[in-house]
Fold this sequence. Notes:
Elements: H1 21-27, E1 30-36, H2 38-42, H3 45-53, H4 64-73, E2 78-86, E3 93-103, E4 113-116, E5 128-129, H5 134-147, E6 154-161, H6 166-176, E7 180-193, H7 208-222, E8 227-232, H8 235-250, H9 268-283, E9 287-294, E10 297-307, E11 310-318, H10 327-339, E12 347-349, H11 359-362, E13 365-375, H12 382-419
Parallel strand pairs: 4-6, 11-12
Antiparallel strand pairs: 1-2, 2-3, 3-4, 3-5, 6-13, 7-12, 7-13, 8-9, 9-10, 10-11
Amino acid sequence: MDSSGDFRGLHLADPAPDSGADATAASRPAVSAEIATAPRFRSLALLWRRLVQRCAEPNVFMEPAVAGAMYTATETPLHVLLAWSHRSGEESELIGVWLLVIARPSSRLPIRTLEAPCNSLTFLGSPVLDRDRALEALSAMLAVVADDPALPKLICANQIATDGPVFPALLGAVARRNGRIVEIERRQRARLDAPAAGQGAPSSVISAKRRAELRRHRKRLAERGALRHVSHRKPEEVSAAFRAFLDLEAAGWKGRKSRRGRAIRQAPPLCAFAQTMIAGLARDGCAGIEALHLDGRPIAMNVWLRSGRTAFGWKMAYDETFAKWGPGSLLMEMTTETVFADGTLDVIDSCNRDASATLAQLWPERREIADLLIDVTPGGSARGRLTALAERLFRQGRGVARRTYKAHVKPVYLRLLARLGTQRPSAAPRQGTTER
């Protein structure tokens, strides 16, 4: 990558053919791609499950249930890129899926782009690809975008994991088309790997001091009533628990007017999408909710999703009445032990924006994430270069503003509140929770 963030200088040559390569190439199935609707994608559920079993990287935000929620609960047109492998005399095999929407870039430049992930409640934009055909599938997908006159030729591929096999495949596919790919921003977020055979539970990554603190908190809460950890897995249980989660989130700091409606329930279109998505994922066995109950009512709830052997920590909320005892941290400790218990998961992706979130203090592993701009026009385009420049300047300016606020504005504001005898408003969210 050069200083402008462009990957064009990176040499990504195809492997040199060995003896018999021509015969092997001739025997390889043909690959094609199409732009489908959400209902068509949903009808391919069985082929999708086969793809997930052999995919390079799972991504729950590319699941048919997510596509269905976009289709039924929002007015945003969804474009489902499907890549197929065709072998004579055999059923075509699904080898790639990528959900894209038409939007404007984050800089709000008046330019139409294709974007993944679909909205602010989805946290990973990488396509799901057959591990053995990733480059071919992506090449076919980019070709169908380039050939469709109705689609933008720029793709904002956000929250792409750079430490997995999809990222190099994406670079290679763009290079094959002589397109242009620019890195807009890169950051890290927390993840937690499953313990290896013979090792302790994932909670062992927490320091002894922190474990002792959690035990004290659990004891104090138990003194106030019957404390119980509840796991919701059945679809009807998950749907009911999710409604309780929305109420719990809206009752907390995210529901205050000062947070400008960050609670899901305060944004009706997003709320409809979230309820439809969670219900659909639960029916497909891809969503669960963990709850910490005190005398039968939830004081902390954690919604987690899964696809293949990867879990995704989607959202958490807690009752601020009990904030000083860290119910969010207590529930997260219980959740990690629960989700890894049956040995069917390899990793939990925190879905946090970056490593500044609280989970980064608890989980030692990191997942590197990049936001990319892909221009499928051969040689790139002036529109693509302008968009890339605007995006990078906007992100840099936003980062400076955030750092300035945290370092200078917020401390003055909090000191002023203290002098006025006002309770610190940000204290509750910082009680060891993992909310987003």
